[in-house]
Design goal:
Blueprint lengths: L7 E5 L24 H10 L2 E8 L1 H4 L5 H17 L4 E7 L22 H9 L8 E4 L2 H9 L4 E5 L7 H4 L4 E3 L10
This protein binds 1,7-di-O-phosphono-D-glycero-beta-D-manno-heptopyranose, magnesium ion and zinc ion.
Zinc ion (ZN) binds next to loops.
Family: Belongs to the gmhB family.
Main location: cytoplasm
GO biological process, one term: carbohydrate metabolic process
Length: about 180
């Protein structure tokens, strides 16, 4: 299969990119969409990008909330995008943590960013060409995961966690938020 038959993807980190990172958000009442997320995702969706979310959810491993809580919130979140005529093709999450987690989630896994596992799974399951794809994150670990997965364009946004100069070196672009992303179209 040649590259032209592969899909291009906009990979999004969730907390700090899609929604305000209030810290281990798991309830829709605390899920505050970041300004511009719908208009930006609509622009990329209409431009032929699959939209795939890849999110660390150590709050599950830490016992702050359950996988069922996360799945319910994710269903609600996808419905909000759908109401804006945007299909979220998939949401991949990592519930693990290497040090502070309930026994069943205590592990050094291949999916927790900066590991690339969630991105590689999305690339495989959705026939994505990483060279035509973009990753948006608010942490250095998001950029490192994308680099490991071969995602060609990496964007760091200021709308989430603070980051240092070493994080800036892992990004191709640094924007205030996802609202500025259409400049890349
Ligand atoms: O930004 P994404 O990957 O979508 O999700 C991040 C969240 O799972 C949480 O990740 C935590 O980091 P630790 O997992 O505790 O290191 C903290 O940064 C929280 O503020 C944040 O809400
Ligand atoms: Mg984040
Ligand atoms: Zn994991």
């Amino acid at each position: 299969m040649n590259q032209s038959q592969k899909n291009k993807a906009l990979f999004l980190d969730r907390d700090g990119v899609v929604n305000v990172d209030h810290g281990y958000v798991y309830q829709s009442e605390r899920f505050e969409f970041i300004e511009g997320v719908f208009s930006t995702c609509k622009a990329f969706y209409d431009a032929g990008y699959k939209i795939i979310i890849v999110t660390n959810q150590s709050g599950i491993g830490r016992g702050y909330y359950t996988e069922a809580d996360f799945i319910a919130l994710t269903s609600w979140m996808k419905a909000q995008f759908s109401a804006h005529q945007i299909l979220i093709s998939d949401v991949y999450f990592c519930p693990h943590h290497p040090k502070n987690a309930l026994p069943e989630y205590l592990k050094q896994c291949a999916c927790r960013k900066p590991a690339p596992g969630m991105l590689l799974q999305g690339i495989s399951e959705h026939n994505i060409d990483p060279q035509q794809s973009i990753m948006v994150g608010d942490k250095k670990s998001d950029m490192q995961a994308a680099e490991q997965a071969g995602i060609a364009t990496r964007v760091l946004v200021h709308s989430g966690q603070q980051f240092d100069d070493s994080a800036k070196q892992t990004a191709d672009f640094i924007f205030n938020s996802i609202n500025d992303l259409p400049a890349l179209l």
